[in-house]
Amino acid sequence: MSTIDRRSFLLGGVAALSFAACSTLTSKTGPVGTDGTGGARPGGSGAGHGGDSAKPFTSVVMVGDSITRASREELAVAFTALGITDQVIDGEVGRRIEVGNGKGGRPLSGVRTVFNLLSAGADPDVWVIELGTNDVGSYATADAYGGLIDQILGELPSDVPLVWQNTYRPQYLDATNVFNLVLEQRIAARPRSVVADWFGAASAPDAKLLRSDDLHPNNDGQRAMALIVAQAVQQL
Length: 236
Known about the structure:
Elements: H1 6-12, E1 59-64, H2 66-70, H3 72-81, E2 86-91, H4 110-119, E3 126-130, H5 142-155, E4 162-165, H6 173-188, E5 193-196, H7 198-202, H8 219-234
Parallel strand pairs: 1-2, 1-3, 3-4, 4-5
Helix pairs in contact: 3-8, 5-6
């Protein structure tokens, strides 16, 4: 299986959407979570190898918001292409990192979702987090965003590889840049962790990966996001 090439997708457009760079990718099947749902280290060729042991990743838990929810089928395909067949992809519309008790139709926060998954026995080879979009613009300082990120990192087992996808919210671009900078710093300090650069892809002027709301990924964007996450997993 060859390395998934995000750049070729972004430059090649829809023609690359078949994931031709990965010969095992043949369908949109694969398990998805029950709700329907980063300092990079260079990896070897093929799937993420789980560090010095060269043990392939076979399981993943991903927690995100509506961007994850919209892209869950494409993510499932990309994970399967990497040999990761045990998947939980938990995305909820409006999910924030700290705010949200799951009552009154509101989504459960990312922190509580991660806690609940761990309490239920979740023990994946790799975690993927896609959170922050619904938080940027709601806090005034870098320290505040750092505190949010630290809450998630504090819940996750420190010895398990992690991908955290950064965010793009042009309505609050300054705050987005602050959040992403703090995220880069936190992830750089954590072993076996990498940032998946959704901001770089979504903000490219000729990419055309977003819906008319300039926030959520369109069909091409969903596939691009899956490629970006998969490539980040390969770097672990």
